[in-house]
Structures are given as structure tokens and as C-alpha cells.
Design brief:
single chain; 5 strands; 4 helices
């Protein structure tokens, strides 16, 4: 093998070794835009606990929905009016479940404890599944 061939082979080996590092995307960003009121905070507790266990794998940003920054962020994603909760994963509130149905992470989760008039169609498990999918993992 000539020195040129050795150099090309070495370069190829180095490049192949770098491919996994280059293909890793930035960690997902989970934005929680929520009102600071007790029912909202209680509804988000399970999600926040799960996200705290994802430290280092997920970037979490929290914004008070009633602050000027929160109102502006909600407006930029097309939400107006009384929106107690909006959860975005990499800037999106809408995701598709494994069964093909759509879910929108807006308003309260779809549990009996949530106020009926502003109950969304999502569960904490839906957010977890979307984050895990983004991380390239599947749910157990």
C-alpha cells in the first residue's frame, strides 16, 4: 500500500468515526408556556417531574403565559385568548401518536381533574412519547 493509499484509508477511518458525533442533533427543547395559578401548576406537576429526570437530554424553557413574553410567544404560535397551558417540543404543539391520531399540547391535560371547558386532548404520556421519539427512543 502506497503512502497516499494509507493516508486516504486513515482519513476514511477518521471520517467514519466522526459520523455518529456529527449526526447527533441538538437536544429537544420543551417550552412550557403556562399560567402561574395553582390548578395549572398542579396539572403540570407530573410532566415537570418527568422532565427533571431527563436533565442533560432535554432543554426545558418555562414562560409565564400572562407575562408580556408569554403573551407574545403564544401569539407567535397562533394562540390567542385564555390559554392556560401550551407545550411546545422544538417549536411545535401538534404531534401524531403511534396510532395515527393527532394531539395538540394546548390547554389542560385530558384528565378528569382538569376543568371541562379548557380541557385539551393530550396526556402527560403523550408529551413524554413525543420527547422520547425526538430523542430517538421508543416508549416502554
Amino acid at each position: 500500500m502506497s503512502s497516499r493509499q494509507k493516508l486516504i484509508a486513515t482519513f476514511a477511518i477518521v471520517l467514519i468515526g466522526l459520523i455518529p458525533a456529527l449526526s447527533q442533533a441538538a437536544p429537544p427543547t420543551v417550552e412550557i408556556i403556562a399560567m402561574a395559578h395553582p390548578p395549572v401548576q398542579s396539572a403540570l406537576k407530573p410532566l415537570r417531574e418527568w422532565l427533571s429526570g431527563q436533565a442533560g437530554k432535554v432543554r426545558v424553557v418555562e414562560i409565564d403565559a400572562e407575562s408580556p413574553a408569554g403573551e407574545k410567544r403564544l401569539e407567535t404560535i397562533g394562540l390567542k385568548g385564555h390559554v392556560p397551558i401550551a407545550i411546545l417540543i422544538d417549536g411545535k404543539t401538534r404531534f401524531q401518536r403511534k396510532d395515527g391520531s393527532a394531539v395538540n399540547f394546548v390547554n389542560f391535560p385530558a384528565v378528569k381533574e382538569s376543568p371541562a371547558g379548557i380541557r385539551g386532548d393530550w396526556l402527560t404520556e403523550d408529551v413524554q412519547a413525543a420527547v422520547l421519539e425526538r430523542l430517538g427512543k421508543t416508549r416502554r
